[in-house]
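S1.2 Input.
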Amino acid sequence: MAGELLQYSGLVTKARAMHGRLLKREDFERIADFQTVAETIGFLREQESYGKIYGGHEEIQHRGQVEELIYHSILEDYHKLYRFGNREQKRALELYYGQLQYEDSIPRMEDGYFERIWQSIEGFPGKKMKRVLREIFGTQIDWLNLMWMYRSKRFFHESPEEIRKILIPVRYKLGKAEWERLLKAEEIGEFLQLLGNTAYFQGREPLASMQDEVSYRMVMQRMYRRVCRKYPASIAPVFYYFYQKEQEIEHLTMALEGIRYQVPSRDIRELILS
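S1.3 Output.
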């Protein structure tokens, strides 16, 4: 245990310091009241987490330019942490890197991305590292699949055969028979009822409504908090930081979009603070 603390203390400390520089709720409340993109740019220049990336970019004025720099900030953080990690930690970080290539916080990876990750986890020597990586990526895989099943059934009325083609062929907490029943459910009501009996909902209030991306984020947030409590000296706090930074970037880009099109501040608040 002492060895693990020493092994991860520096990396986790750095990630927590970065976490402390994430924007707070009151920052987003202030952003929602801005009337112009220029005001938002001025505010971000003053923030520790974004101010440095504006260095040498005094010409930045447009929303697209701002979003590009905001997105670049998470890549800079990744490289700082990567350089600080040991060999095994760098291997784990490399698994996550593919997700940072996408600005959408709910990734739609190229074919085989998650399958390759799932296979790669088996190559890690430490049992704890494997458990942490399986919990993080397994939960994500299950919920991306559930979300895509839900969306395909509710909005596009696709057949099980059509839906199967877009799913990741990996299961974590969903058994094979359970997966097939969910996939073949003919009505959205039946799908939700079956979902309520899975490991993700058993023992909780029946179906806190399946709200697509909202449910995905809630599950991921709970999972990260649980894993970080259980394994504080692990790669989990580092991945949790990336996840939270991705959420921050998504909220900033939504706010910038709303400000650009003069969306009322109350509507922007509802989008980024709900």
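S1.4 Remarks. The chain has a mean pLDDT of 87.
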